[in-house]
Sequence to fold (504 residues):
Amino acid sequence: MTIASFTFLGFALAVVLIYNCFSSATWRMWVLLLADLAFLSTFSHSVSAFVPLTVFLACGFFAVQAMQRAHKEASYLWIIGGTILAFIWLKKYTFLPHDTFLQFAYTTLGLSYIFFRVMHMIIDSHQGSLNQKVGPLAYLNYTLNFTTLVSGPIQSYPAFIEQHLAPVRPPLTIIDMGNGLERIVVGFFKVNVVALVLSMIQNQAINALSSSQPLATRALTGAIIAATYPVYLYYNFSGYTDIVIGIARFMRIKLPENFNRPFSTDNFLEFWNHWHMTLSGWLKEYVYNPLLKSLMRRYPSPRAELSLGVIAFFVTFFLIGIWHGRTSEFLFYGVLLGIGVSVNKLYQVKMAKSLGKKQYKALANNWMYQALCRGLNFTFFAFYLLWFWSTWKDLGKMANTLGPSAQLLGWSLIFIVSTIVFRSLAGRSCQRLSCAMGRPALHLVPLRENGLRHEPRLRLIGCDGASQYTGSRYRLQGLLNAAASNRSSESIMLHTHGGSDRVE
Fold:
């Protein structure tokens, strides 16, 4: 049962109806557990296929219990090492001897996300930041949550339990249901229409690729093969996320977002703050930050700070690569990720030193520079994803068929087209809606929080600084709508405390 299927939607609808029958937290937890187990049972019809996963979950639970009772450093290191080794062994990473693996078929679907959840609980329990006592029911619901089991997003245990064990369940308003339904419909369209079409285009291009094609045709075919997959992956992955976020809203649960217009980012580091955000956030908290702190304690020299930061970045993104898969292709994928983020960081630091922070910031805000950066960002993304979706054998075959000239032309074409296309996307600080009239833009600028309701007070300002209106978001929304409909502004920008939102 796949998430983007009507079967799953029917299953989710039944769960939502039963889940909302009673407001008791105990009722909600038991209904969710039964739904989790029912969804898990669709992965295999063999009971033995679930034995390794069951043992992994049981060991994880007892490890969390042990860390909550005593924070012994020696035990903690053994538990962390054992959990990582168990994950690698169950996933059958190819650098381990094949004879050591279990010789019967078993399910590992969802294990990658279960691994992160278990590790998060073990680490936080050891550090004393996981104050809630973890019971078996809450543990299983958190690790096996059917809405996030297969493709995330990765939610923290405190955030999960706060919503599920709330004595008074959150309200389910018409707006919540409307937003949830919209996310489900959009997600279904992304996965079953857009992603499907893009996958067909790529497959047709792969089948059509031939050494007998003219050079220009070969280059175009190669460009389509390489450039289609990143867009396919975005619509497919973000579509799955939209669906589960929408379903969770009907269960009065707010799952974290996983994507935020990643192709509108201007560099590799920023890209990963907008792509698979819960994964990069997890690794930042549990790998990058502690690794960097440890290195800086060991090598306290200020001169070493940049090198240590680059090392921490490389290790973190290398782990992203090998977490995604067990073959040498994913290992090399991780190496490319690590190199990309390291070079990006070094470039930023060197440019800031050579130009000065103000001049470098001015350069980074230049529209042409941003366009070129976005094109380069997408081109590199498409390049290292080759090792994500293909194999060494297939890549070698395609490279030989294309030849050096077609490869160079193909990647140049990807860079040029992506530079032009993504130039129109939003920058880091705002979203712009271009209008025909060349009049001053309107800015919504946050002023303060209004009491306990946390309603932002905003100020509507023309680009020339002349006209200013102050009020809540809702009081100013009419002005924005009127401005947009009358085409009375060149662009409309909406700034809030949580970042930037698009006004459409």
Remarks:
- The beta strands are 442-450, 455-462, 468-472, 492-496, 499-501.
- The first strand starts at residue 442 and ends at 450.
- The two ends are 35 Å apart (CA to CA).
- Residues 426-504 have pLDDT under 50 and may be disordered.
